[in-house]
Amino acid sequence: MYRTHSNGELRLQDQGKEVKLVGWVQRVRNLGGMTFIDLRDRYGITQLTINEQADAEVKDIVGQLGREFVIQATGAVVERSSKNSKISTGEIEVIISKIAILNAAEVPPFTIEDESDGGEELRAKYRYLDLRRGPLRRAMELRHRMAQEVRCYLDSVIFLEIETPFLIKSTPEGARDFVVPSRMNQGEFYALPQSPQTFKQLLMVAGYDRYFQIVRCFRDEDLRADRQPEFTQIDCEMAFVEREDVLQTFEGLITHLFKSVLNVEFKEAFPRMSYADAMKYYGSDKPDIRFDMRMVELNDVVKGKNFSVFDNAQYIGGICTEGCADYTRKQLDELTEWVKRPQIGATGLVYIRLTAEGIKSSVDKFYIAEELQKLAALFNAKQGDLILILAGAKRKTMEALGSLRIEMGNRLGLRQKNVYAPLWVYDFPLLEWDDETQRFYAMHHPFTSPKPEDMDKFYSKDKEALRQVNANAYDFVLNGVEIGGGSIRIHEAKVQQRMFEVLGLNAEETAYKFGFIIDAFKYGAPPHGGIAFGFDRFCALFGGQESIRDYIAFPKNNAGRDVMLDAPSKIDEAQMKELGIATIG
Ligand code: ASP
Asked: Residue 89 has what DSSP assignment?
C-alpha cells in the first residue's frame, strides 16, 4: 500500500498513529536541526517534520529533495506546537522515521502554490503543473460537483442521458464548422457538431421524450475574449411541452444546482422579461438585474429645443446614477472618453447633476431648469444623483447606454459576485437581416419555431413583416451573462421547409443539407422544445470567476492553440495523401 491517509486527512484525534503518506514536495524548509516538508496531494498539505533524532539515511534523502519530488514518508502523527489555521491538517505534523523518493523532479518553471509566479503562457505550456495548484484543483472539483448534480437532478425527473455522434454532416448555420477529412470516402468530409441540435430533435421523433447530455460542442469562430473552440453544454430536449414546461423544468435544475453546490436558495420564481423590454430598459438581451438603473427614453421630452445633437438623433436615452452628482469635471471627461471608445461607439455624453445648489447640466444653454427638473422626474432622480444621456442611432445608442449602465454598476459596486440574479428572457426576433449577404439569418437557429400568432407574417413575402416575426425562444441569463438558450421547435415538415426558404436556401440545398430532419418530421414528430446551457461558463460563474479557462482542464489559448501540445500542427505528406487532401500556399 502506498499510503494510509491522504494529505488533507489527518487531525488532532489521529495523534499517535503511525501513517504512510505520499505526494509532491511543495516546499522544504531547513531550520537549524529541523527540516519541514510541505507534502501536497489533491486533498491538501501535510507538514512532515524531520528532527535531530532521525536516521542518517532519512536526513540524507531529505537533503536531496527538491520541489515537486514525489515521495513516500512514514512517521507518527503529533500535535504541532505552532498551529496553522489556514490548512485542514494545520493542527498536526508527522515526525518522519522513513522516507523514499518515488520520482525526482526538475525544478518546475513556476511556483506551484495558490499564488504562482508564472505568467499565463508559461503555465499553459505546463498545464499539468498548473493543475496541481489549489485554485485549479478547486475549479476541477467544482466542475465535477456540478456535472454530478446535473446528472442526479435530471435523472430524478426521468431524463435519459444519450450520446450523439461527433462525426456528422457539415451544415453550417451560424458559426463555421470544424471539418474532418474522410479517408474511406475520399474528397468527402465530416463536420464536428456545433451542438447536437438535430440529433436531440431526432431523439424526440424517436420517442425518447426527455433527453440530456453533457456534451462537447465545436465552433470554428473568431475567438472573442473567453471563447473556446470546443466547449461543453448541458444539452436538453423534451417532447410534448410548451415554453412553460421547459422553463419550469430547468428552473428546477438551476435551483437544485444553486442549493446543492453553493447552498444558495431562491425564495421566488425567477423573473421573466421579454426581449423587447430587455432592450428598452437595459440596452441588452442579457440584462444584469442585480441593480436597477433602468434606461429611460427621452425622445419626446428633449427634442425641439434647438439642440441639434438631440434633434437629429433617432434615440435619446439616459440612466440615473445614484449619488454621483459630485462627479468632478475630470471624472465626467473621463466617462465621456469611455463612451467614445470604439467598443462603445457613442459620440458624446450629456450629463445632468442634481446638486444642493440646483440642477446643473452640460446642456444648460438649451434647456431651462424647469425642463431639466421635468426630465429628472422621469428617472425619479433625487438630490445627489447624476443623469447620463446618450443620443444617436437607435440600436447602437441603446446598446451603448446599456454598456454605460454596466460600467456605472461596476464603478458603484452594484455587481457583487455573491449576489445572484437569474432571469428568463423570451420572445426574441426569429430572424436577423444581414445587409452584406442580403439575406435573413435565424437569430437562434433554423429549428426554432415562430410564435403561433406570427405565423401569417412568417409566410409573408414582405421583408418588414418577416422582421417582425417573434420566435418561441428563451434565454437563461445570470448576472448579465447568457448561460442558456433554447426554444420550442418547428415539428412540421412544411413549416421547417418554409424556414429554409426564408433563409434563402432553395429546395435542392434544403434537401441536400437538411433532408434527414425534414423526412423525420414526416413520420410523426411530436411537438418538442429544449434548451442548452454553457457548462463551462456556468461553472465559472459558480466559482466566482470571469474566465472559463480555469474551469476546463486543457483549454486553448486566445488564438485557438493548445500551447502544451503545440496544436494545431502540420501532418506529414503520407497522411495527407492517404486522406486525399492537399494544402494550398
Ligand atoms: N442547440 C442550441 C444551441 O447550441 C440550444 C438549443 O436550442 O437547445 O444554442
From this structure: T
Mutate to test the pocket of ligand 1, among 235, 236, 490 (most ligand atoms within 8 A of CB): 235
Tell which residue, 20, 17, 18, 15, has the closest CA to residue 7: 20
Phi first, then psi, for residue 260 (nearest 5°) are: -75, -30
> pLDDT, tens digit, for every residue of 106-163?
999 999 999 999 999 999 999 999 999 999 999 999 999 999 999 999 999 999 999 9
Ligand 1, atom 1: closest residue by C-alpha: 197
Name the residue with the closest Cα to ligand 1, atom 6. Answer: 486
Rounded to whole angstroms, the Cα distance separating 439 from 503 reads 7
User: Average of pLDDT values for 381-409?
Assistant: 97
CATH number corresponding to 12-103: 2.40.50.140
How many Cβ atoms from other residues are within 10 Å of residue 436's Cβ? 5
- Ranges of beta strands (E only) in 382-480 are 386-392, 422-426, 431-434, 439-442, 473-478
Pairing mode, if any, of strands 160-161 and 210-218? Answer: parallel
CA gap 424, 477 in Å, rounded: 6
Ligand 1 contact, 510 CB (< 6 A): no
Q: Name the phi and psi angles at 510, rounded to 5.
A: -60, -45
From the options 3.40.50.880, 3.40.50.1260, 3.30.1360.30, 3.30.390.10, give the CATH code of 291-411.
Answer: 3.30.1360.30
Backbone angles phi, psi at 466, to 5 degrees: -65, -40
